[in-house]
């Protein structure tokens, strides 16, 4: 089998041919991305190179992209042109990379397409902006929304391909084309700057309106389709560069991400070991620090176990596991921190003192990131002089598996630090969502009423023995709490009660569970009984604890449990979540409503087919949700009281998403 590599040959004509070799389809794996960056940089800096041809080995250009950032092709001031020589296929990120070149020469049979929406994501490498500028808006939307591929002959007709040639002439013609661009005999223009294939703004809006109606019919519960259209529309309105992933005052101010060569992870527990695993899997060297050798060995063994689990599943080879482990080093002090570019702190306790130590031990450019999921970052960093470098990197457990990365910025976090963390997030195959700083941040704050709503249901209505299986929301909440253990729930309870006074559901259920010797799956006893090799079984004795919690709460109408139907169970648990999401949007904690949709699916397991928490809420209607919450608030208290934002949208008959 051919080795996975990127090669470059510089001809006497001054054309550098860069070839991707990653059988069978030349997928753009992290090592290929790194190789492309290296060869492009070398070509750009070489006085012998006038132009570049990018191609693939084995009769294929590239069949996929691993959601990373390949910056060299995107540079608007690149001093040398590039031409894509396409054969076989150019799909997903492969086609997006080809569209990033200044021209595309192809063999007749090559297959071209952007199938990302069928995989649950949008074209994230500029495809939503480049394709409409090359083939026109109607054809681009048809290809993306339906994940259609076309052959190169059709691509030439629409403008995606500049020339069709035989396989024998592919490299020769591509080299000539690249030199013609370099010598200004052919146009030298980025696809993001082209407007000749775009229709008028009014026509574009009509086309997009029709596309949204089509999406409502063919994919009503798929948030990626709407997100794709939003990205296309932003580019149509404000230019191609505006429609690529955008965070105001971060991605639109001319900054470029710095290279993160080495990361320190402080704490090798469940989260720290998961974060370290994700980093070394992306070829990022990691220094793992612990307070003593026993904890350090435990952390290193957890990382090895994470990798072994991936090998058993067939998603990682033994060789790649060994390579990843070679990038990991365990330490007991800060002596090797002088060369790290980012430090991630796992543990909630002692963060202030650790940050003070890191200030002294790390270089002045080092990013100081914390994995806290609730604590205000201003408090964490208040004793440092480096608050511009402090940022939240909230991973979701298990950190090497869960795809969401919640990036939390404060008013003092520098745009460069935010951009750098977004970049490292994509490099480790996470979906980064940038949010504001508040208690719980965006995701945990939005969903804290989920658990409280389940507690309400436990206390008010049901017993563990008789819960109908269709009441899946509360069953999953119970199991989630069992798996997570009750320590975190107890730790954050007072934080939420203090931050959101008057609108939390007051229950002593968790305290009573702990008092009775239950800590969930950790000790085999929670809402369920956990025995090795068996499925969790409901524990009948929990009913007595629920009954005691019910007595202490003393807020039931008439002092008796209520009877509610299946739909009301769902609504009583999720409508408070929607209500809190409204506050999160209203306060500007998230940039856009779709950030909450994506986060709810990728971070909290909200059903993908429902489209995300806000999307789902708008299918129900703000008026209905407001009326229900208002009714329950009168009976059961302020936990259900509608937010001002929800009340406003409902009163005006508007959806929750601001257009």
From TrEMBL:
EC code(s) of this entry: 4.2.1.17
Recorded metabolic or biological pathway in which this protein acts: Lipid metabolism; fatty acid beta-oxidation
Protein name: enoyl-CoA hydratase
Provenance organism: Musa troglodytarum
GO terms for biological process, alphabetical: fatty acid beta-oxidation
GO terms assigned for molecular function: (3S)-3-hydroxyacyl-CoA dehydrogenase (NAD+) activity; enoyl-CoA hydratase activity; isomerase activity; NAD+ binding
PROSITE patterns: ENOYL_COA_HYDRATASE (PS00166)
TM stretches of this protein: none
SUPFAM superfamilies, per database record: 6-phosphogluconate dehydrogenase C-terminal domain-like (SSF48179), ClpP/crotonase (SSF52096), NAD(P)-binding Rossmann-fold domains (SSF51735)
Domain of life: Eukaryota
Keywords of this entry: Isomerase, Lyase, Multifunctional enzyme, Oxidoreductase
3-hydroxyacyl-CoA dehydrogenase NAD binding domain mapped to chain residues: 263-437
Recorded family membership: Belongs to the enoyl-CoA hydratase/isomerase family.
Gene Ontology CC terms, in alphabetical order: peroxisome
């Amino acid at each position: 089998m051919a080795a996975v590599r990127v090669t470059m040959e510089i001809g006497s004509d001054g054309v550098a041919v860069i070839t991707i070799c990653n059988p069978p389809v030349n997928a753009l794996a992290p090592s290929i991305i790194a190789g492309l960056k290296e060869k492009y940089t070398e070509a750009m800096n070489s006085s012998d190179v006038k132009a570049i041809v990018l191609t693939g080995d084995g009769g294929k250009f590239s069949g996929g992209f691993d959601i990373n950032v390949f910056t060299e092709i995107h540079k608007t001031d690149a001093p040398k042109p590039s031409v894509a020589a396409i054969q076989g296929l150019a799909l997903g990120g492969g086609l997006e990379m080809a569209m990033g070149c200044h021209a595309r020469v192809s063999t007749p049979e090559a297959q071209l397409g952007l199938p990302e929406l069928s995989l649950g994501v949008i074209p994230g490498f500029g495809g939503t902006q480049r394709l409409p500028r090359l083939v026109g808006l109607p054809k681009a939307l048809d290809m993306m929304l339906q994940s259609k591929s076309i052959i190169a002959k059709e691509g030439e007709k629409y403008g995606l391909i500049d020339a069709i040639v035989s396989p024998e002439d592919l490299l020769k013609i591509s080299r000539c084309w690249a030199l013609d661009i370099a010598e200004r005999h052919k146009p030298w223009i980025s696809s993001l700057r082209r407007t000749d294939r775009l229709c008028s703004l009014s026509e574009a809006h009509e086309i997009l309106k029709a596309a949204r109606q089509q999406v409502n019919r063919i994919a009503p519960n798929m948030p990626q389709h709407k997100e794709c259209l939003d990205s296309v529309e932003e580019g149509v309105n404000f230019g191609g560069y505006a429609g690529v992933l955008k965070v105001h005052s971060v991605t639109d101010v001319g900054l470029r991400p710095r290279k993160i060569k080495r990361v320190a992870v402080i704490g090798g527990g469940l989260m720290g070991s998961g974060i370290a695993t994700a980093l070394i899997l992306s070829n990022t060297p990691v220094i793992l620090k612990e307070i003593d050798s026993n904890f350090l060995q435990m952390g290193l063994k957890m990382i090895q176990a994470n990798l072994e689990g991936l090998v058993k599943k067939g998603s990682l080879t033994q060789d790649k596991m060994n390579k990843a482990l070679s990038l990991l080093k365990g330490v007991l002090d800060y002596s090797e921190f002088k060369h790290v570019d980012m430090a991630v702190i796992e543990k909630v306790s002692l963060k202030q003192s650790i940050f003070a130590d890191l200030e002294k031990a790390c270089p002045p450019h080092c990013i100081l990131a914390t994995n806290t999921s609730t604590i205000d970052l201003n408090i964490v960093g208040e004793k440092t002089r480096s608050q511009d470098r402090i940022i939240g990197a909230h991973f979701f457990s298990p950190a090497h598996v869960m795809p969401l990365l919640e990036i939390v910025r404060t008013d003092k976090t520098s745009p460069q630090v935010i951009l750098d963390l977004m970049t490292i997030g994509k490099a480790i195959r996470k979906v980064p969502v940038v949010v504001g700083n508040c208690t719980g941040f965006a995701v945990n704050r939005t969903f804290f009423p989920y658990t409280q709503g389940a507690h309400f249901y436990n206390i008010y209505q049901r017993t563990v023995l008789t819960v109908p299986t269709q009441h899946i929301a509360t069953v999953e909440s119970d199991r989630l709490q069992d798996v997570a253990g009750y320590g975190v729930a107890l730790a954050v309870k007072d934080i939420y009660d203090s931050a959101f006074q008057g609108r939390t559901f007051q229950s002593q259920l968790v305290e009573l569970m702990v008092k009775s010797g239950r800590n969930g799956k950790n000790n085999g006893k929670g809402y369920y009984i956990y025995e090795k090799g068996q499925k969790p079984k409901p524990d009948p004795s929990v009913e007595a604890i629920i009954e005691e919690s019910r007595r202490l709460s003393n807020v039931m109408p008439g002092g008796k449990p209520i009877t509610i139907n299946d739909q009301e169970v769902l609504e009583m648990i999720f409508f408070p979540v929607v209500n809190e999401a409204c506050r999160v949007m209203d306060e500007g904690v998230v940039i856009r409503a779709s950030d909450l949709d994506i986060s709810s699916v990728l971070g909290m397991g909200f059903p993908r087919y429902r489209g995300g928490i806000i999307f789902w809420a708008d299918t129900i209607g703000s008026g209905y949700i407001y009326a229900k919450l208002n009714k329950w608030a009168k009976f059961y208290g302020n936990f259900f009281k509608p937010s001002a934002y929800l009340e406003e949208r409902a009163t005006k008959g508007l959806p929750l998403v601001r257009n």
